[in-house]
Amino acid sequence: MSTEQTCVIIKPDAVKRGLVGEIISRIERKLLTFTIIKQERLTSQFVDELYQEHIHAGFYEHHKEFMLSGDVILIIVVGEEAVYKMRRIVGNAMDPLVGTVRGDFAESTTYNLVHASENLDAACREIKLIGEIK
Question: Per the residue annotation, which of 54, 56, 63, 115 is the catalytic one?
Fold first, then answer.
């Protein structure tokens, strides 16, 4: 097993609903730690860079508007198999299982509470984006 870093963004719907502590607790229970936790209001440019592979998808403008609608919590998570563990904690956006953050709390596939890097390459790119926020 290897120690990895990954990006997690607690989205505006989770922040507004007071689920930040619950989500962070679930991460900590998997023996993952944090190098950065900060509350921010995302910029349009940040969202475009974060979701660059979706910019031309039909749902993108609505999703971008949602991501800009309120504060988010940006987190860099560290630990053994951090990418895999975070994907399991968060759950699938389209078919979330009970016991995952999305399965337990998401109101829809659109308002799904948390972004977690899909793989190590995405994690590296997204961590760099977080580091660029001043």
Answer: 115
